[in-house]
């Protein structure tokens, strides 16, 4: 290469280096691409911007990497590369577009690079559109606020800079009448010279915003109540450069609240006929309507309470009398019931003693029945023994008869022996003596047999009488046993009845004792009720006195509003009871597609 060509080449390289240095020095975010849409260059500002946004971009483009952009085709950014290529191929002048990637918004300015009539590349200037869009949004918000609120601007010292039509209409001034004047023209003399007013502006100059409801003076001395905020506006260095007030005229509402407060004060003082007659702003007029309805309802209730309190006083007087009578009767009933309980206790003790005695009598009757039955058995055995004795006496009588016959025969034999001995003479003398002795013995035997027979006859007669007596005794004992059995059954029934009576009397005594306790409690309750009735009557009297302080507008008999008839008090009756947003329109389609 010759010297001039080499010098020219070095000059071109020097110019390129200088241009690159210039691009790097720019605050603008610049990207260069060749005619084939390959990314050739990004300056440091763009690299920093994309690095900062890389995490958000990767959510849409997972393969995106700032470090790999140089040499990559610009098609990687496009959802529809053919559309973008057609757009760039026909691009004749710089083209602006706004693209959105997730939460990121970028402004792009694409310009073709030409060498003669040939496009040799493209330069793309990137810009973060966040601040621009925020400024547009803020401007739209300020405009919306200006349409709905009154706005005025001041210097930090309080001189008026500007005001919107809403403020001028609210205060009744023209703009030329207030510009350059101090804010103090809107406050009264007392507030203007107060320390609070001076502190108010000191706080604003120190950057503190003030929000409250303020009393202001409009043109002609008219009172205006403004709900608003004073907002210090700071420059880039944090210095207060002006103060902007946003306010809403709430004078009708404040006057309405004041009217409600005065009306409530009158109501508190007892003027229940107070009504609000002035009109309220439409948005709060329901408060006036509801207040009037509430006052009317309260007036009606108080009138009814006044009437009812009189009726209650009358009824309570009757209740006091009835309660006193009931208390006396209850005390008398309690005393009588106490005496009844005592008598029942004595009766229950007597019945218990009777039941105990009946039990013992039952045991004695049982024992007597057993003894009578045993005596009857013994008599039966005695009758049988007497029968046997009678039978034995009969047999003995038969044996005595035999003995008597033997004695008679012996006597005959002895007589015959004597006769024969006399015939024998001297030889038969001894035999005659024996015969005489035998005869004497036979005679005595016959006499003895006769006496025994007489005794046995007498004994038989006595045994027969004894048998009859024992038989009669047996019959009497049978009757006695039967009577003792009947008496035992009667005594058993008496004992059972006595036990049942004792049980019943015990239950009656328990019930009476319970009744006595309940009656005592009722008596105490009646006393408490009587005391409560007296207390209630006193409280009702106080209530009636309190009700008199309310002025309901009702005129006494003779004219005006008629008093509502009081409910007639029911007579006190003594009785016994048993007891019991629309979505925003979609933006026009961009010629530059999103990522």
Task: Give an overview of the whole structure.
Helices cover 62% and strands 13% of the residues. The chain has helices at residues 3-25, 44-60, 81-89, 130-148, 165-171, 189-192, 195-205, 251-268, 285-424, 429-547; strands at 29-34, 39-42, 95-101, 104-115, 118-128, 150-154, 160-163, 210-217, 223-234, 240-249. Among the domains are: 17-128, 2-Layer Sandwich (Beta-Lactamase); 149-249, Beta-Lactamase (2-Layer Sandwich); 310-509, Orthogonal Bundle (Helix Hairpins), CATH 1.10.287. Strand 1 and strand 2 form a beta hairpin. It has a five-stranded antiparallel beta sheet with strand order 2-1-5-4-3. The chain has a five-stranded antiparallel beta sheet with strand order 7-6-10-9-8, with helices on both faces. With 595 residues, it is an alpha+beta fold. Helix 9 packs antiparallel against helix 10 (429-547).
How do you describe this structure in short?
This protein has helices spanning 3-25, 44-60, 81-89, 130-148, 165-171, 189-192, 195-205, 251-268, 285-424, 429-547; strands at 29-34, 39-42, 95-101, 104-115, 118-128, 150-154, 160-163, 210-217, 223-234, 240-249. The chain has 595 residues and is α+β, with helices and mostly antiparallel strands. Strands 2-1-5-4-3 form a five-stranded antiparallel β-sheet. The chain has a five-stranded antiparallel β-sheet with strand order 7-6-10-9-8, with helices on both faces.
């Amino acid at each position: 290469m010759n010297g001039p060509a080499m010098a020219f080449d070095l000059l071109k390289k020097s110019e390129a280096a200088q241009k690159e240095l210039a691009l790097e020095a720019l605050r603008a975010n610049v990207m260069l691409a060749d005619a084939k849409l390959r990314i050739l260059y990004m300056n440091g500002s763009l690299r920093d911007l994309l690095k900062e946004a890389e995490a958000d971009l990767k959510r849409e483009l997972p393969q995106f990497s700032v470090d790999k952009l140089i040499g990559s085709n610009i098609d990687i950014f496009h959802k529809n590369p053919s559309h973008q290529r057609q757009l760039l191929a026909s691009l004749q002048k710089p083209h602006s577009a706004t693209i959105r990637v997730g939460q990121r918004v970028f402004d792009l300015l694409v310009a073709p690079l030409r060498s003669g009539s040939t496009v040799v590349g493209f330069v793309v200037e990137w810009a973060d559109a966040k601040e621009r869009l925020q400024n547009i949004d803020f401007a739209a918000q300020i405009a919306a606020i200006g349409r709905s609120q009154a706005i005025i601007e001041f210097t930090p010292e309080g001189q008026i800079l500007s005001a919107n039509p809403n403020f001028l209409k609210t205060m009744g001034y023209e703009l030329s009448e207030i510009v350059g004047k101090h804010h103090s023209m809107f406050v009264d003399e007392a507030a203007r010279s107060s320390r609070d007013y001076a502190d108010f502006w000191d706080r604003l100059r120190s950057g503190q915003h003030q929000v409250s409801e303020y009393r202001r003076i409009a043109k002609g001395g008219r009172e205006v109540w403004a709900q608003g905020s004073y907002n210090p506006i700071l420059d880039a260095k944090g210095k207060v450069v002006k103060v902007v007030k946003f306010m809403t005229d709430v004078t009708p509402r404040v006057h309405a609240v004041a009217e409600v407060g005065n009306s409530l004060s009158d109501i508190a003082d007892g003027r229940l006929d107070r009504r609000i007659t002035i009109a309220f702003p439409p948005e709060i007029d329901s408060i006036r309507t509801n207040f009037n309805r509430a006052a009317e309802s309260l007036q009606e209730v108080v009138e009814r309470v006044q009437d009812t309190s009189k009726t209650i006083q009358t009824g309570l007087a009757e209740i006091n009398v009835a309660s006193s009578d009931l208390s006396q009767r209850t005390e008398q009933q309690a005393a009588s019931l106490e005496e009844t309980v005592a008598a029942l206790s004595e009766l229950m003790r007597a019945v218990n003693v009777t039941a105990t005695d009946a039990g013992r009598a039952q045991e004695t009757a049982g024992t007597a029945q057993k003894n009578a039955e045993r005596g009857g058995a013994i008599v039966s055995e005695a009758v049988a023994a007497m029968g046997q004795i009678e039978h034995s006496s009969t047999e003995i009588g038969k044996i005595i008869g035999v003995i008597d016959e033997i004695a008679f025969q012996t006597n005959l034999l002895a007589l015959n022996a004597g006769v024969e001995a006399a015939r024998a003479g001297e030889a038969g003398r001894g035999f005659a003596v024996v015969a005489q002795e035998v005869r004497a013995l036979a005679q005595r035997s016959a006499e003895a047999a006769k006496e025994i027979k007489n005794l046995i006859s007498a004994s038989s007669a006595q045994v027969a009488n004894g048998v009859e007596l024992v038989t009669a005794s047996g019959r009497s004992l049978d009757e006695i046993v039967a009577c003792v059995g009947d008496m035992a059954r009667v005594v058993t029934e008496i004992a059972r009845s006595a036990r049942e009576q004792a049980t019943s009397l015990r239950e009656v005594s328990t019930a009476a004792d319970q009744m006595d306790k309940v009656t005592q409690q009722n008596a105490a309750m009646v006393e408490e009720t009587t005391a409560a009735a007296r207390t209630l009557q006193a409280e009702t009297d106080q209530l009636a006195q309190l009700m008199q302080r309310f002025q309901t507008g009702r005129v006494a008999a003779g004219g005006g509003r008629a008093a509502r008839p009081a409910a007639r008090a029911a007579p006190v009756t003594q009785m016994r009871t048993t007891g019991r947003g629309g979505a925003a329109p979609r933006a026009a389609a961009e010629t530059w597609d999103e990522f």
